[in-house]
Amino acid sequence: MVGALVGTGGFLSAGAASAAIAPESVVSSASSDVERWVVPQTQQGGNYWTSERMQSAIPGAVLVQDNVAAGVVGAVAAGATSRVAPQKAGPDKSTMAASVSPISHIGKIFFTLGGTDYVCSGNAISAANENTVVTAGHCVNEGPGAFASRLTFVPAYENGSAPFGQWNATELYAPTQWSNSGDISYDTGFAIVSSPTGTSLSDSVGASGVTFNQSRGLTYTAYGYPAAAPFNGQTLKSCYGTATPDPYGQSQSQGIPCDMTGGSSGGPWMIGSGSTGLQNSVNSFGYNNIANTMFGPYWGSVIQNTYVAASA
């Protein structure tokens, strides 16, 4: 193995979470590429996530450290390019401009896996159900293994503030290539969340459009809440650069110049500059011997199928 794979941002100590109890009821979708987990009410966030628990949550990057493919992997299935337009927030629901930090539809994700509390990043995306969040696969499922519990999305988080409240997940989705095999090339997951106010997520904060089966080597703006040193996870950060292939061929992921660390896992990659572009990947991992490079999965047909199942 040429390069050692570590969690988002690299330079983390070894050790993933211990195996959790297998899901009580996994409901398969119509696609064999997708696994759906209906979160029991007893495992939903409820009032679990106090400010103290949020502060002590461990960056979810440690969960992806062992997901190294054994050599060069096969090509990710690709199909026709597809695009889904963004959804705008409803009238008077959001006063935040998309270009101002914090960004209303990007936030932090808190969850429990293997009895440990973790933190990642995520983004509200356009969907028919208007309540869909996308993040890294390792932020919803052990890959392979159990799905997370107590997962909650906190949009526009900043310095402990949650201006739009906490949105608890009721369903989780992941490609079976991730949930059954832990293939890092498919490190993407989706959460369906319930509203704390009765208004849908997209009406409350807006939602990014998404696109799949795009050309490789595009230029992206990536966002996230890095919590490992030298960052503290309290404010949104961004990176910008042109994507290049995984130099070791251990995944079909692409890398962009970025020094974000653990906690930024699952943050969105937007095509072009700024937060208004279509989302086309997420923060996934870094190599400990390649400084300041963030890798994200290529969104081909399998991840598209997972999105379609989650967003219905």
UniProtKB/TrEMBL annotation:
Entries under PANTHER family matching the protein: SERINE PROTEASE (PTHR15462)
Alphabetized GO MF terms: serine-type endopeptidase activity
Classification lineage: Bacteria, Bacillati, Actinomycetota, Actinomycetes, Micrococcales
Stretch forming the signal peptide: 1-19
InterPro entries: Glutamyl_endopeptidase, Peptidase_S1_PA, Peptidase_S1_PA_chymotrypsin, TRYPSIN_HIS
GO annotation terms (biological process): proteolysis
Protein name: Trypsin-like serine protease
Organism the protein comes from: Cryobacterium suzukii
Coiled coil (residue ranges): none
Highest taxon, organism lineage: Bacteria
Alphabetically ordered keywords of this record: Signal
